[in-house]
Design brief:
Blueprint (H helix, E strand, L loop, with lengths): L4 E3 L3 E3 L7 E2 L3 E7 L2 E7 L4 H21 L18 H10 L10 H13 L6 E5 L2 E5 L4 E4 L11 E5 L6 E6 L14 E6 L2 H14 L6 H8 L5 E8 L2 E6 L3 E3 L1
Antiparallel strand pairs: 1-2, 1-8, 2-3, 4-5, 5-6, 6-7, 7-10, 8-9, 9-14, 10-11, 11-12, 12-13
Length: about 250
C-alpha cells in the first residue's frame, strides 16, 4: 500500500480504511479483482463506481491482451492513438519520466473514477491503494505517513480549495507493496493529474538510493510543469519543493 493520511475539519482519513471518517459524506468500498477502492461522496454511488471500475479494467485488460508487454515494461510506451482512453492517459503520464505505464495505473484509475462520479456528486474522494484523487469544497490537510521514519505523520500538506481537483500519490520502498528500486520511506507528489502524480512518485523513488540522492533526484523532476510539488522522506531527512505548504501535525 502507498499510504497517506488525510485530516480536515469534517474529514479524517488515515492509513487504515476502518479509521476513515467523512462525517457529511457517504463512504463505501468497491472492489473488482485487484482494484480495491475506498470512496467518499455526497451519496452512495457504489453501483456507479463499480461500473466505472469495470470500464477501466475492460480498457486495460483488453489492451494488455493485445499488447502483453504493456503490463511488464519498465520503459516508456510509445504513443498509441488507437488505445483506450485510460491507456492513453497512462502512456501520456509516464512518457517523459522514464518509467513504464503501469507505474501510473493506481492513480489513473482513481482519477477516472473520481471524474466519472463528479457528475453525480460535487465532492468525491477516491483512494486506490494510497493514491488519491479528490475534489472537495473546503481545504484539506494531508498527513504524510513514512513508515518507521521518525518524521512519519509529523508533517502534513495543506491543500487550499483553489488546488482541487487534485491527485496526491505516493511511493515507498519500505512500506507496502509498491515496486521501488530506491530506499525512500515515502515520496509524495501533488498534481492536477493523479496518473502523473503516481508515475512521478515511482520515478523519483527509483532514483533515491540514499539520503545524498534526494536533492539531485528532485532537481530532475522540477522541470515537469504538471507537478505542483512534493515531499521526500528518507529516514530522518526530509526534502520538499514546489507550490506546497507544509504544516506540523
Amino acid at each position: 500500500m502507498k499510504p497517506l493520511g488525510m485530516n480536515m475539519s469534517h474529514y479524517r482519513m488515515r492509513t487504515y480504511r476502518k479509521n476513515a471518517l467523512a462525517r457529511d459524506l457517504i463512504s463505501f468500498h468497491v472492489a473488482v479483482k485487484e482494484t480495491d477502492l475506498w470512496i467518499s461522496a455526497g451519496k452512495n454511488l457504489t453501483s456507479e463506481a463499480r461500473d466505472l471500475v469495470f470500464d477501466c479494467r475492460h480498457q486495460l485488460e483488453t489492451y494488455i491482451r493485445l499488447n502483453p508487454a504493456f503490463a511488464t515494461t519498465l520503459s516508456a510506451w510509445p504513443e498509441d492513438p488507437y488505445a483506450p482512453l485510460l491507456v492513453r492517459e497512462m502512456i501520456g503520464a509516464t512518457k517523459k519520466i522514464g518509467v513504464g505505464p503501469m507505474a501510473s495505473v493506481a492513480g489513473a484509475i482513481a482519477q477516472y473514477v473520481c471524474e466519472g462520479l463528479l457528475s453525480l456528486s460535487s465532492q468525491v474522494i477516491v483512494e486506490n491503494g494510497g493514491d488519491i484523487c479528490l475534489k472537495l469544497n473546503r481545504p484539506v490537510t494531508v498527513a504524510i505517513f513514512a513508515g518507521t521514519s521518525p518524521l512519519s505523520e509529523r508533517f502534513g500538506l495543506s491543500i487550499p480549495v483553489t488546488k482541487v481537483p487534485l491527485g496526491i500519490c505516493s511511493s515507498s520502498a519500505t512500506v507496502g507493496h509498491s515496486l521501488s528500486m530506491g530506499v525512500a520511506d515515502v515520496v509524495c507528489i501533488l498534481s492536477s493529474s493523479a496518473s502523473m502524480a503516481d508515475g512521478v512518485a515511482t520515478a523519483l523513488g527509483n532514483q533515491i538510493k540514499g539520503k545524498g540522492d534526494m536533492e539531485k533526484a528532485i532537481d530532475r523532476m522540477q522541470g515537469l510543469k504538471e507537478i505542483l510539488g512534493g515531499v521526500v522522506i528518507v529516514r530522518d531527512k526530509m526534502a520538499s519543493w514546489g507550490d506546497i505548504e507544509l504544516v506540523r501535525l
